[in-house]
UniProtKB/TrEMBL annotation:
Gene3D superfamilies: 2-enoyl-CoA Hydratase, Chain A, domain 1. Residues 271-530 form the CoA carboxyltransferase C-terminal domain. GO terms for molecular function: ligase activity. It holds the Pfam family Carboxyl_trans. This is Acyl-CoA carboxylase subunit beta. It comes from Actinomadura barringtoniae.
Length: 530
């Protein structure tokens, strides 16, 4: 059926919500700008004076003209001691008509060296490439590990090389375009890729540079003899192609992709129909106070094809909206929180719906705005634990691709039941209005206060009310800060914070990517405690 809207763009509520969202989006632009700055004006200028392109300029020339680029984890390392973006750009773009995972070192940030967040961001890119069978193109210019933090990089960092070989073994092509240094452990990236292109007189690939070789063996050798592009193209055979400059390397990279003969394994999309309602209105739906409920159908109506949504079990478990739709021509099952709290009925409804999606090989979209599962004597006695477990079981063992969008609250086990990061959705994005934690700041501070008060009184002492007030304020401030999307995105608990108005486009790109691999449901589930 076609969804009807009750949203009034002229109402005071809408205008207030929109103003609050636009303020958050302005803040988001400021944070994204930090990633775009790279290593700062000094190092960007120095890099350009050397006649080199910036990481995003290389990506732009690699991609098909006017094609989209879905950047992933742009706020990685936010709030840490490292620059926002973690010295690497990752994302999905179209090269010669083929969707590819792009991983580009940013040489303006400490020479492109890898810090702990670089490693985590690269792992996430590899996981996405493997799950969705995306060819991987590495745009390499890195000095290797950030040595002061080597203790956090060396042991886990070996997975980067393991992932490259596993991608290749799975029949997923890997390509390295080397623009500058690729030293020490970083030399294994071109060494383990299926195809390697090196830029003449620029690429330097060696396990040990001249100073290390001198110290280790006493031998004296220059950069070119040890690891120059010409040596690797003519002598070692490590380079499959030698480019005359950066533009030529990118041309060769496109040429390689063109000859890969890649075909999507998933079903093709049907005819696409735009929603009936303006995506611009998505900026005025979520309230500033997440305790105020909103109807997720208003979001669905502005995201799915033709605003058509066939709701499943509409009269049962009404705090969770479930139903079927198409999005950019692809079939999708949607689970969306309506009133925040999940009761037993919602959990049972979700479990059945997830089973049906697996039976019909239909991907699932989770739209989060939940405070978690209901607590209290009545609900415990009615079986909220086993019903919540039923929903989580279904989510955990579902095999169709999942996508999560955290629109508002995502607290407690509700985050798990709605396929939070721990449940490996193919993609997870948040809106600037999102918050996620074990529980709300006031609730968490209140629980700590009750426990501390009981412990004090059990010892026969008088509870300090002033100290309690100070503790509550401190805890609420801390949890509020740690619940915000920038904090969570900085730790790679999502794949990026997006403008709500871009949701349909982002979801369309994700669904297209997902269908590079076959889409099939689970053959069975774990034991459902009835």
């Amino acid at each position: 059926m076609t969804l009807k809207t009750t949203l009034d763009p002229l109402s005071t509520d809408f205008k207030e919500r929109r103003e609050a969202m636009l303020a958050k989006l302005a803040d988001l632009d400021t944070e994204h700008a930090k990633a775009l700055e790279g290593g700062g004006e000094k190092y960007v200028t120095r890099h350009k004076k050397r006649g080199k392109l910036l990481a995003r300029e290389r990506i732009e020339l690699l991609l098909d003209p006017d094609s989209p680029f879905l950047e992933l984890s742009p706020l990685a390392a936010w709030g840490s001691d490292f620059p926002v973006g973690a010295s690497v750009v990752t994302g999905i773009g179209v090269v010669e008509g083929v969707e590819c995972m792009i991983v580009a070192n940013d040489p303006t940030v400490r020479g492109g060296s890898s810090n702990p967040w670089t490693v985590k961001k690269s792992f996430r890119a590899s996981d996405i490439a493997l799950e969705n069978r995306l060819p991987v193109i590495n745009l390499v210019e890195s000095g290797g590990a950030d040595l002061p933090t080597q203790k956090e990089i060396f042991i886990p960092g070996g997975r980067m090389f393991r992932d490259l070989t596993r991608l290749s073994a799975a029949g997923i092509p890997t390509i390295a375009l080397v623009f500058g240094n690729s030293t020490a452990g970083g030399a294994y990236i071109p060494g383990m890729c299926d195809y390697t292109v090196m830029v003449k007189e620029r690429a330097k690939v060696f396990l040990g540079g001249p100073p290390l070789v001198k110290m280790a063996t006493g031998e004296e050798a220059d950069d070119e003899a040890l690891g120059g592009a010409e040596m690797h193209a003519r002598t070692s055979g490590l380079a499959d192609y030698m480019a005359v400059d950066e533009a030529d390397a990118l041309r060769l990279g496109r040429q390689i992709v063109k000859r890969l003969n890649r075909q999507k394994a998933g079903p093709k999309p049907a005819e696409v129909h735009e929603p009936l309602y303006d995506a611009e209105e998505l900026a005025g739906i979520v309230p500033e106070d997440l305790k105020t409920p909103f109807d997720p159908r208003e979001v669905i109506a502005r995201v799915v094809d033709g605003s058509e949504f066939d709701e499943f079990k509409p009269l049962y478990g009404t705090s969770l909206v479930t139903g079927w739709a198409r999005l950019h021509g692809y079939p999708i099952g949607i689970l969306a929180n309506a009133q925040g709290v999940l009761f037993s009925e919602e959990a049972q409804k979700a479990a059945q719906f997830i089973q049906l999606a697996n039976q019909s090989d239909t991907p699932l979209l989770f739209l989060h705005n939940t405070t978690g599962y209901m607590v209290g004597k009545e609900y415990e006695q009615a079986g909220i634990i086993k019903h919540g477990a039923l929903m989580i079981n279904a989510v955990a063992n579902s095999k169709v691709p999942h996508i999560s969008i955290v629109m508002g609250a995502s607290y407690g086990a509700g985050n798990y039941g709605m396929c939070g990061r721990a449940y490996d959705p193919r993609f997870l994005f948040t809106w600037p209005s999102a918050k996620s934690a074990v529980m709300g700041p006031q609730q968490l501070a209140g629980v700590l206060s009750i426990v501390a008060r009981a412990a004090t009184e059990a010892r026969g002492q008088v509870y300090d009310e002033d100290q309690d007030k100070a503790m509550r304020e401190m805890v609420e401030t801390q949890i509020e800060a740690e619940s915000l999307p920038y904090f969570l995105s900085g730790r790679l608990y999502d794949d990026g914070v997006i403008d709500p108005r871009d949701t349909r486009t982002v979801l369309g790109l994700c669904l297209s990517v997902i269908h590079n691999a076959p889409v099939s449901g689970a053959g069975g589930f774990g034991v459902f405690r009835m």
